[in-house]
Design a protein that fits this description.
three-stranded antiparallel β-sheet, alpha/beta, binds zinc ion, globular, about 350 residues, binds (4S)-2,6-dioxohexahydropyrimidine-4-carboxylic acid
């Protein structure tokens, strides 16, 4: 039985660090085990300009403890007014690693996102030309479409067209939640990949809703039926280069999640690798964990593979994690799956 893993230090290809009071916690939690992360730009106001990128990156690095290292890979928030030159300059100079597309209204702070996809055509053409990856929140926002069907509707009605118009555009379908998305990603060429989160691999909609609503399991896209979770697990343990870890760790204050209109997001940065090791072991696929956490994403983004390693060990007893972390503005509950893990990252 394997009780110790030594793997290339992982990267997180989709992460919310938030800002200000949150940064000393979020940045250092991720930096404990991740070398790099794609940083989401959905702040208030959103990161829509290179000057915002520069200042936000500076705030992130200022929060990093001196004994840790962490490379925040910055993104621009795409709006219908985004200047293509801003994208080109940002990507070519290395200030951004990707552009993020939120359909307006799809999720937290997405109001400035895209309503009319025709308007962003010139930007997508330039991005295809310079090979700048496009990270997509893949859900339609039409109220006539059931929330559980919004990912598939986005593939059918929006993404297929975007990709047909720009076959050379590198697209990451983020935080996929359905077998439909797995099948679509697998059926398309090497310019399409997907990130998968820890929470979508470990809970289904019964965990969210049966026996009482669990606000800390509420995220977007919302978790689906068990067969969809199983399809995601199968995809990531297959070792296919098209799937890699993007935790979408998205902390909100408890008072904002446990409210009459609770925010979407699971705070998984604290225990992601331990949960993943448990899932991969259950699937007898521990040898594929490194591909998912540390190799596939770097290759898709055209980045080097990290040179250092981390150790994850299996103990006799379940690993304990803090229930909550404190910020000056209140507490944040750590994501807890409904199973125990004996794995622990050694830092
Ligand atoms: O659950 C989520 N939380 N999904 C998202 O797409 C956004 C994120 C957030 O920023 O809170
Ligand atoms: Zn996200």
């Amino acid at each position: 039985m394997t009780t110790e893993l030594v793997i290339v230090r992982p990267d997180d290809w989709h992460l919310h660090l938030r800002d200000k009071d949150f940064l000393p916690i979020t940045v250092n939690e991720s930096a404990r085990s991740f070398a790099r992360a794609i940083i989401m730009p959905n702040l208030v106001p959103p990161i829509t300009k290179l000057v915002d990128v520069k200042n936000y990156k500076q705030r992130i690095l200022s929060a990093l403890k001196p004994d840790l290292s962490f490379d925040p890979l910055m993104t621009l928030y795409l709006t219908e007014e985004t200047d293509p030159k801003e994208v080109k300059d940002g990507f070519v100079s290395g200030q951004i690693s990707a552009v993020k597309l939120y359909p307006a209204g799809a999720t937290t702070n997405s109001q400035s996102g895209v309503r009319n996809f025709e308007k962003i055509k010139p930007i997508l053409e330039i991005m295809a030309e310079i090979k700048c990856p496009l990270c997509i929140h893949g859900e339609v926002t039409d109220n006539n479409i059931d929330i559980f069907d919004r990912e598939k509707a986005f593939i059918d009605n929006v993404l297929t067209k975007i990709r047909n118009d720009n076959p050379a555009l590198k697209v990451i379908m983020e935080h996929i939640t359905t077998k439909d998305a797995v099948d679509y990603v697998l059926s398309e060429n090497e310019n399409l990949a997907a990130t998968v989160t820890t929470h979508h691999l470990s809970i289904n909609r019964n965990d969210l809703l049966a026996g009482g609503i669990k606000p800390h399991f509420y995220c977007l896209p919302v978790v689906k039926r068990e067969p969809h979770r199983l399809a995601l697990v199968e995809a990531v343990v297959s070792g296919s280069p098209k799937f890699f870890l993007g935790t979408d760790s998205a902390p909100h204050l408890d008072q904002d999640k446990e409210s009459f209109c609770g925010c979407a997001g699971c705070f998984t940065a604290v225990n992601t690798l331990e949960i993943l090791a448990h899932i991969f072991e259950e699937q007898k696929a521990l040898d594929k964990l490194e591909l998912f956490t540390s190799i596939n994403g770097a290759k898709f983004y055209g980045k080097n593979i990290n040179s250092d390693k981390i150790r994850i060990v299996k103990k006799d007893k379940p690993t304990s994690f803090p229930e909550k972390l404190s910020t000056p503005r209140g507490e944040i509950t750590v994501f807890k799956p409904n199973f125990e893990t004996k794995w622990q990252v050694l830092v």
